[in-house]
Amino acid sequence: MSGPHAGFYVHYHGMGHKHRTEAILKHLSIPATVVTSRMDSLNWNGPTLSNVVGIECDNEELNQEGLKRAADVPCLHFAPLWSDNISNRVAKYTAWLADAKPDVMVVDVSAEISQLTRLSSIPQIVMRQHGDRSDPGHLHTYAAAHSLLAPFPQSMEDEITPDWVREKTVYLHGFCRSKSGHSEIPSPSLTGQPTIVFMFGRGGTGEVHERLRATAESLPAYRILVIGKERDESHHRDPANLHYLGWVNNAPDYTASADVVVTAAGHNSVMELGYARAKFIAIAQPRPFNEQIRKVNVLHREQLAIGLEQWPDDANWPELIHRARRLDPSKWDDVFKEDGAKQAADHIHRVALWSSEKRQRSARISL
Fold this sequence. Notes:
Helix content is 34%, strand content 16%. The protein is α/β, with parallel strands linked by helices. The protein has two domains: 6-175 and 338-361, Glycogen Phosphorylase B (Rossmann fold); 188-332, Glycogen Phosphorylase B (Rossmann fold, 3-Layer(aba) Sandwich). The protein has a seven-stranded parallel beta sheet, sandwiched between helices. A six-stranded parallel beta sheet has the order 10-9-8-11-12-13, with helices on both faces. Helix 4 runs parallel beside helix 5 (136-144). It starts with 5 loop residues before the first strand and ends in a 6-residue tail after the last helix.
């Protein structure tokens, strides 16, 4: 491929990595290729996106005995033995690198892909995430990168991040899928009863339903709307103020018009609510590397949200809601001062141009 060319490795867990990549691609002016697993057959959007390459997934068709050796290598997060799927994945990815010769790879996210990329002699930009990333796998990944992209501004940096990682980081202003934070439905508080929206992903457990029933009982003055989960039909005594809406396609309408939103502390949910200038409570869910625990601490420190490391006791809900309603949503203005997706695209473009020039103009020597 002539001219600068950027590649994107997009992790297959959830849709957040795909949405983030597409937001950046929207602003990218050089040809781009996406490499991914499981999601290569989906529709991908980007004005300069030329190809989507599918490679085998590294957690399918694993050898049961080999899986016991997955953590043998400290600088890798996942290296099981005797998996043909992983052998084929590595071979296909490195063969594509050798053939396409991208000027830069954007890795979002994988320690193994990052180090394969550097071993294949291709510069890379690694996407950072919140969490305690002090393990050897992450530190080697960051060291192998030309630069790091943080999908959050420097004000949302974690105090545990080493100085050398901060120095390699390009901090971005916020970006998300939403284009408007304004709801088309009337504010519930204007209808006479304040509303709290609990926002969950798909699925649910009996434990969550029990918690929601107890929460609704502790907040009788509020209408409780639950999106993302269906009612537990085995239980017929839900409080009158508790309403399950199931999976909805217009979640921003509900969250933007709520008095308070309660959500897990996933990056996309947090940024969507921040963009909408919602007053919200973020509750950490168990994630590798304490990702959401570290994030709620940052949110709480910056007074962007009420951040909780775990589900609160029932008796604490009234005070938590009171505190959430006193939050100042204008604190998100600095987070979204500029378009972080465009900032990311501009950086990727600059690194691709630098890499292309060095590749073409540097002399060849043998040692």
